[in-house]
Amino acid sequence: MRSLVERLADAPGLWRGDVAFSDTERHYASLHRDTYVDVWLLCWTRRSDTGWHDHDLSSGAVRVVQGVLTESNPRIGGAHLATAVGSGASICFGPDHIHRLTGATDDTVSLHAYSPPLWRLGQYAITEDGLMRRLSVSYAEELRPLEPDNRPEPGAARATFSGPGY
């Protein structure tokens, strides 16, 4: 999956025309879908937030081609881990991965590939007392936070990845 999003990043003529930004919602475009893989372009501003989610049965890869995303991973009983993923960096994950993506800059563009193709996603809410609940949603729905707190805590652990190989 990583090699797919990296090769696609090197061919902006295939996706650059789909880049657009909105103040009210995250812009996204399906670039390819077949029996084996699902490929998306997503555009982010600082207000964009997926909320906590998983990809059900799908593994995936994300390549940031412009700007910076923040990937947060939940830690039960501790501060969530927040990682800056800059332009040129990629992340990969399996179907058991729970995360949240937010725009760290107002002009972020990322490429996402999933296999098998997305059909359902798990959307999570973490309550103030630490309980987590999962809601199954269609891949066609825009992911949004289920709870009002839509950013990592100020004291959250942080890491930074940038450049090729991440």
Features:
4-stranded mixed sheet
Q: How much β-strand is present in the residues?
A: 35-45%
Gross geometry: globular
What is the element string, with H for helices and E for strands? HEEEEEEEEEEEE
- Please state the structural category: mainly beta
Largest sheet: 5 strands, antiparallel
Instruction: Using the CA coordinates, give the radius of gyration.
Output: 15 Å
Question: Tell me, what is the CATH class?
Answer: Mainly Beta
Which segments are poorly predicted (pLDDT under 50) over 5 or more consecutive residues? 149-166
Quickly count the domains: 1
Distance between the termini: 13 Å
CATH topology value:
Jelly Rolls
Count of strand segments: 12
CATH superfamily: Jelly Rolls
Give me the CATH architecture, please: Sandwich
